[in-house]
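Chain particulars:
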Amino acid sequence: MDLSPSRPPSERVLFEVSSVSAIAPIGSFRLLLPFQMVLVLAIGDLHIPHRAPDLPAKFKSMLVPGKIQHILCTGNLCIKEVHDYLKSLCPDLHITRGEYDEDARYPENKTLTIGQFKLGLCHGHQIIPWGDLDSLAMLQRQLDVDILVTGHTHQFKAYKHEAGVVINPGSATGAYSSITYDVNPSFVLMDIDGLRVVVYVYELIDGEVKVDKIDFKKTANTQSAH
């Protein structure tokens, strides 16, 4: 699948998609990569305990402390225990507020810089219509970010927009939404190094974890607005 944008060669943003098997904890996937990079977990819409009792056991066995440098959570954790669990995986935890979160201190959106990439985080219930590509593109421009991480639809998406990327990690528990009851649990792991980010999509399908890989390469000549 070719997700390359229509841009001049000097400003080309490239995507390549391939599959790898998931049979081991996240940290072991570094063995597939040439360098020791920065690992960023994107996760959200857990809805524990109202729509799901817990993370799938196979996800919990993969998400182990000490392997991840940053966590971006799109929101709808719903209870403090989920916050504490994520914090136990990685102390550098960034959360935006979903409409069902008890903690009103979570911001509506947030930006941070990791390496050469500026990332934006927003739950997504503020986007009208929900998941609308044009509205998400506008938010990405407003936040002035290379990568926008958003949620709410409970369905994984990753696609290019101009010189950047929009990622929705889906629902980590497979919680139903007002859009669909048929939800595969999923989360995203980003491996960031220089001008390259490798996006691993972990999805639980028929009791097995499937992993897809998306490569995002930003050329040195690509100039972001920031």
About this structure: The helical segments are 57-62, 80-89, 133-143.
